[in-house]
Amino acid sequence: MAMNLQQSVDVEKPVQESDFGHTLEQVRAFYDEEALQRQSRELAPWKERERNRFHECVSGQGRVLELGSGPGRDAEYFVQCGFCVTCLDASKEMVACCIAKGLDSFVSDITEPLEFADVSFDAVFAMNSLLHVPKDKLPSVLAEVRRVLRPGGLFFMGVYGGTEFEGNWDEDPTGRHRFFAYYSDEALRDMVHTFFAEEYFAAIQSGPRAGLHFQSMLLRRP
Questions:
Q1: CA atoms within 13 A on the CB side of 4
Q2: What does 65-97 look like in DSSP terms, one character per residue?
Q3: What is the pLDDT of residue 19?
Q4: What's the pLDDT score for residue 21?
Q5: Do residues 49 and 202 make contact, with C-beta atoms less than 8 angstroms apart?
Q6: What is the per-residue pLDDT for 109?
Q7: pLDDT band, very low/low/confident/very high, at 211 (cuts 50, 70, 90)
Q8: How far apart are CA 69 and CA 87, in angstroms?
Q9: Residue 9, pLDDT above cutoff 60
Q10: By C-alpha distance, which of 114, 171, 107 is closest to 140?
Q11: Over 90: is that where the pLDDT of 137 sits?
């Protein structure tokens, strides 16, 4: 499995299928380089609050799928809370960090059909991963999340946004001009409503991303 993202182009143009592989390698290379640094980075208090909100809404000790698990910080927390966690990430170095923590983790392409049976998970957690998915791919990704969730299952989706944009972002705080897909609050909520019932939405002012805020959502599979 390999997580597939897409090459950015000019904002005015749709992302082309032929650019797909280049963007995957761009994003993957960035997070491969960042793996050890991010493993030691402290979790921002607002991220901890949103993660805990998700945890409090997931009943029992069920199965959790994390999309874009990074070095496994959130997954490790969920395991400590008693959940059975499966981690997916584009970066082999991030996956290596997860495996070193004893986590069930795989290099994965979330723009392709997920290799899990229907209703395999009680909850899905995606913190700052779906913002690298091209806009024309996001509906199919959301459909796959819905498919692998049990009825009544919970989906946390957290991304940066508040404006409409798709492409290499010149104001990337890392200076690396990574590919991002941003949505206005209204556009994002309208899109996810096709697949899930919204239980919670918050626009969180969260740091040095000019003109953007964090869009935190708790979504329930009907």
A1: 15
A2: EEES-TTSHHHHHHHHTT-EEEEEES-HHHHHH
A3: 53
A4: 54
A5: no
A6: 83
A7: confident
A8: 6
A9: no
A10: 114
A11: yes
Q: Report DSSP letters for the chain, one per residue.
A: ----------TTSPPPGGGHHHHHHHHHHHHHHHHHHHHTSPPPHHHHHHHHHHHHHS-TT-EEEEES-TTSHHHHHHHHTT-EEEEEES-HHHHHHHHHTT-EEEE--TTS--SS-TT-EEEEEEES-GGGS-TTTHHHHHHHHHHHEEEEEEEEEEEEESS-EEEE-TT-TTSS--EEEE--HHHHHHHHHTT-EEEEEEEE--SS-TT-EEEEEEEE--
Q: Over the stretch 12-69, which tens digit does the pLDDT of each residue have?
A: 334 444 354 567 787 787 777 777 777 777 888 999 999 999 999 997 779 999 999 9
Q: Note the pTM of the prediction, 2 decimals.
A: 0.86
pLDDT in tens, 81-134: 999 999 999 899 999 999 999 999 999 989 889 999 999 999 999 999 999 999
The owner of tokens 């949505």 is 183
Instruction: Report which of 139, 131, 138 is spatially closest to residue 209, judged by C-alpha positions.
Output: 131
Report the C-alpha gap between 31 and 53 in whole angstroms: 26
Burial (CB count within 10 angstroms: exposed 0-12, middle 13-18, buried 19+), residue 156? buried
How many CB atoms within 10 Å of residue 130? 20
Distance, in Å, from the CA atom of 154 to the CA atom of 140, rounded to the nearest integer, reads 18
Residue 208 token pair? 């040095």
Give the position of tokens 């991303």.
209
Rounded Cα distance, 21 and 7, in Å: 7
